[in-house]
């Protein structure tokens, strides 16, 4: 399994990376502003993972949404937090802003 992971500037990316490696995946991680869809295509991944990150999918996800749009239906794509929100927007959803940020409750 060859996984390309898009890092949306979140430390939890490395928890996901470690878990995938434990499962035997070969994982390459790229920041969301450091790779193009064409470069990802050239890597010939078997899976794409879009990491969590701060901000909103409309303006903080870099290459994440174009990568999802290209690879959806071609290979398995997993979005975590911001990555999932990117997928939600691509398929017609609207991501709003929370009135209050609450972690772990």
Q: Can you put this structure into words, describing what you see?
A:
The protein is an alpha/beta fold and 105 residues long. It has a domain at 1-24 and 38-48 and 81-94. It has 4 helices and 4 strands, in the order E-H-E-H-E-H-E-H. It has a 4-stranded parallel beta sheet with strand order 2-1-3-4, sandwiched between helices. Strand 3, helix 3 (64-71) and strand 4 form a beta-alpha-beta unit. Helix 3 (64-71) crosses helix 4. The longest helix has 10 residues, at 13-22.
Structure summary:
By secondary structure, this protein is α/β, with parallel strands linked by helices.
Which secondary structure elements does this structure contain, and how are they paired or packed?
Elements: E1 2-7, H1 13-22, E2 26-31, H2 37-43, E3 47-50, H3 64-71, E4 77-79, H4 82-90
Helix pairs in contact: 3-4
Characteristics of this structure?
single chain, 105 residues, alpha/beta, 4 helices, tryptophan biosynthesis, EC 4.1.3.27, amino-acid biosynthesis, anthranilate synthase, glutamine amidotransferase
Task: Report how far the terminal alpha carbons are from each other.
Answer: 35 Å
Structural class of the helix and strand makeup?
Answer: alpha/beta
SSE order, one letter for each helix or strand: EHEHEHEH
Give unreliable regions as ranges. none
Strand tally: 4
Distinct helical segment count: 4
What would you report as the Rg, rounded to the nearest angstrom? Answer: 13 Å
How are strands sequenced across the largest beta sheet? 2-1-3-4
Mean pLDDT: 96
Strand portion: 15-25%
**Into which percent range does the helicity of residues fall?**
25-40%
> Outline, from the CA principal axes?
globular
Summarize the main sheet.
4 strands, parallel
């Amino acid at each position: 399994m060859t996984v390309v992971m898009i890092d949306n500037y979140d430390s939890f990316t490395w928890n996901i990376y470690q878990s995938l490696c434990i499962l035997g995946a070969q994982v390459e991680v790229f920041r969301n502003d450091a790779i193009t869809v064409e470069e990802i295509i050239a890597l010939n991944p078997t899976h794409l993972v879009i990491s969590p990150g701060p901000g909103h999918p409309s303006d903080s996800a870099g290459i994440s949404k174009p990568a999802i749009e290209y690879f959806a239906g071609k290979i398995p794509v997993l979005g975590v937090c911001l990555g999932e929100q990117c997928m939600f927007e691509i398929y017609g959803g609207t991501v709003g802003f929370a009135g209050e940020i609450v972690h772990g409750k």
